[in-house]
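User: quick one, fold this
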Amino acid sequence: MPVSISPQQRNAIVARLRAAGCVFAEDEASLLIAAADSYAALQVMAGRRASGLPLEQVVGWAEFCGLRITLAPGVFVPRRRSEFLVGQAIARAGQPPGVVLDLCCGSGAIGLAVATALNAAELHAVDIEPAAVACARTNIGPAGGRVYAGDLCEPLPHALRGTVDLMIANAPYVPTGEIGLLPAEARLHEPLVTLDGGPDGTGIQRRIAALAPDWLAPAGWLLIETSERQAPLTEAAMAASGLRTEVLRSAELQSTVVAGSLAAGRRVN
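Assistant:
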């Protein structure tokens, strides 16, 4: 049950958030009130938000593709633009749905959204950050998925090689020199390893593209979220691994995805 507070107390919370620069202070206050079990807890939560902690980490969850994704401090917050990656992966799933592999999974939101939509998919997810692995296990475990701690495909069972129908990745793609330009919520409260993509932002993407041929099923797909500026580099990395590529864009979500398949004639309109 949301905490019961007076109009004056609510106004004080809104004013505190607004003074801290929260543009949607009224809406955020409502979410904090709904998540708190006492006025004292609400004050603590409002203070954490006012200090710059992402709202989703404060309340402990984020909405993504209609799912409530559990979050914890220090775990990458899923962005709405990644819903485009989910949709493009679903459009390329075979029938019956097969193995889904979510690399750099963070909270597990992307892999869980894909597997949930496909219903029968076998889900595996990997992240190198301990906090993310724990969070992903909370989200993916109840759906029957498995989460591994380690660097990309290194911790995966050998039996998965050559069986992955959908390999999806929202790998870090911010160039190292541009980390300082990110909003404070990301720069200060999300691990650097979840943001830093190397000098040109595609270092981890290139590693994933190089691994993909060994792990994809013959008609499987690799889909990587990237930026419009970096898409040519992402596409080149996939092509260098022998994948047939296509660049996909959503103006509405301001999202870019590069998809690649080993199989000829696999383009999806």
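User: anything notable?
Assistant: The chain has two domains: 7-70, 80-261.
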